[in-house]
Amino acid sequence: MKLERITLRQIRMPLVHFFETSFGRTTERDIILVEVQAEGVSGWGEVTAGEHPFYNEEWTASAWPILRDYVAPCVLGRNLVTAADFAPLTAHIRGHLMARGGLEAAVWDLEARLDNVPLFRKIGGGARTEIPCGVSIGIQESIPELLALIARELAAGYQRIKIKIKPGWDVDVVRRVRESFPTIQLMADANSAYTLADQDHLACLDKYGLMMIEQPLGHDDIIDHAALQARLATPLCLDECIRSARHAEHAVQLRACGIMNIKLGRVGGFREARLVHDVAQAAGIPVWCGGMLESGIGRAHNIALSTLPNFVLPGDVSAGSRYWARDIVDPPIEVTDRGTIQVPDAPGFGYAIDHEFIEHLTVRQEVLV
Questions:
Q1: Which positions are annotated as active-site residues?
Q2: What is the pTM of this model?
Q3: Are 235 and 258 contacting, i.e. CB atoms less than 8 angstroms apart?
Q4: How many domains does the chain divide into?
Q5: Which pLDDT tens digit goes with each residue over 74-106?
Q6: Given CA atoms 234, 237, 240, 245 in this order, what sign does their dihedral have?
Q7: Which domain range does residue 87 map to?
């Protein structure tokens, strides 16, 4: 592949319902889409950074100049034997994994489309033809509102419920949810809202049979998570602090978790995601695919990723209609009544692009040649 043209588009999409975590509340998403062209074919990727540098140090406004001024020049006009050649060409750029991962994902999609094969086959997936789905539910205005929302998602067939927690919205909330839904697969995501000084408080969650507690401590910490895991019966799931296969190896060596979350953007794309997956699989640690309020393009990439064999737990890959009144892919990504998404087998990530709607949503665009 000779990468001939890269187009950056920033789109603005309002959420159908606000999404609140310990970082704050989101009501609309500013998303950078990346289109890369070769031989008259386009591949598409999505930069999963948020609007603010709260999940990690990246945000939408920072990703644009990194892509334009640093990442794109490394690959434009270059002949790549395979999409796996992309990551070494940008490895000298420190950090900015979500920006780099958005373009890398587009190159993988391009290669799959040029070879007329599904993306999941190109990345070595295909362990399943449908993926199990869970939902991530943000902090609500009240516990009754949260319980009603959980009931609605369970009625839609979702196999696992994740609720966001933070100090002041944690043990009592989990207790009320477990009392109302005693048998569901339930997990809690803290998004780094606690410290090791809170370990006795977090240990109170052990009695509620959670699948996992996700990233309760520092976003860049593995050592304190190891100490906390030794204190808790509930498995910890590491998210923000696993940015590479080497980080995954450290977590395994320190026994810092029982589960890992893999987010495509957080680790810089498919090449590194596969390596993290392999480290966890070799250690007997199951993984699942996390979400970042993606549009249909990012969601389609997550579906492909979730077909790798060690993605054995329901991920945050859910129906697009949970977030968007209208999505940018066709057909819309939907969940079966079994709580699964069927993996498309069309070339690339398997969904058509709604070009007209993307143009309507675009707030800025830049073509790089």
A1: 164, 263
A2: 0.95
A3: yes
A4: 2
A5: 999 999 999 999 999 999 999 999 999 999 999
A6: positive
A7: 5-116+352-368
